[in-house]
């Protein structure tokens, strides 16, 4: 494939992913710092914060539903429709959060509206990455699919960095200003990203692979009949995201609340790791285009399983120098071996008829399991020496994810039209068929 379309598709994926994780970060920060006081003031401070954080988790409830619905739309009607819809829905819901009335103005209606908007965000997020990955993969040159699909994950790092840059000065406002109008600014700022992303995405062409594909009326039925093992494989492999949730949630809480380290240096570990990941993700994805998806992904999993031990140990002894070096090595480099490759590894397991559904359903279930990892490791213990049990649990997840990937086919040399065991269709074939094809 020649021309600028692969770059446009990669940029469109980057923009959407940046918006999704920008929203993810500012919502979580606002829930921790502001929403308890703004939307749940009738509760005690601790209960208000708990309720506010619960609204953050509500978004995950909508993701499996969104994966089935948007996966069907993307495999039935095209990737472009999903990408435009998810971008507009995410932008609309995020902007509206910034416009919500407070509990003091409308009472219980305020938190109800907050939950509704969070559900809309969850629906959007379920189809965003799978749609972006499918679009960029199918537009990419045959020999550079991992590189071009990796921009979806580079966008996640950029979104977190952007959110930090915007929320830090907002959080420094006087308390009264923060609670009245200051917290709204980051949510309103998402409109700028939506406008840029919409302009880019509406100019995208539908992928040639999809246009030549025999379209099924119920793609999900074909998915679970012909690719059930691949869906299961993606679910298990996607639990490697537990490394991310343990690094960003558990390790931060362990360092600050248990060991007593300063919050600011711990936040900067994440920021610097994300900056390193911006460079590491495309580099490691490019390596996967040369040596294969499985070697890079599996090495990334196992490296995370090894590095989690010295990283948590460095926190337990309070060594800022060590935890910075090890944290960047773990999350900025080793985990980038996973993030840079999984869009191609997972997407190439499926034929174009069911690719978006397979990726959306598999990843969202796996990510949901990973979302509970901090709760699981918290049950292991909260003492200063309990880090070892947490590290063992994390390493076990890494090994299981690596084993799941090891059972997959190596696809870096398989032509795009043949992925998922598909036979290339005639160029003019675009047929709506029955479920049995």
UniProtKB/TrEMBL annotation:
Answer whether the UniProt record assigns the keyword DNA repair to this protein: no
Q: Which residues cross the membrane?
A: 21-40, 46-70, 82-103, 181-200, 231-255, 267-288, 295-313, 319-338, 359-381, 387-406
Matching Pfam families? MFS_1
* Major facilitator superfamily (MFS) profile domain ranges (all copies): 9-413
Q: Where in the cell is it found?
A: Cell membrane
Top-level division of the source organism's lineage:
Bacteria
Q: What is its main location?
A: membrane
Xref: InterPro entries: MFS, MFS_dom, MFS_trans_sf, Sugar_transporter_CS
Q: Which UniProt keywords apply?
A: Cell membrane, Membrane, Transmembrane, Transmembrane helix, Transport
Q: How does it sit in the membrane?
A: Multi-pass membrane protein
Q: What is this protein called?
A: MFS transporter
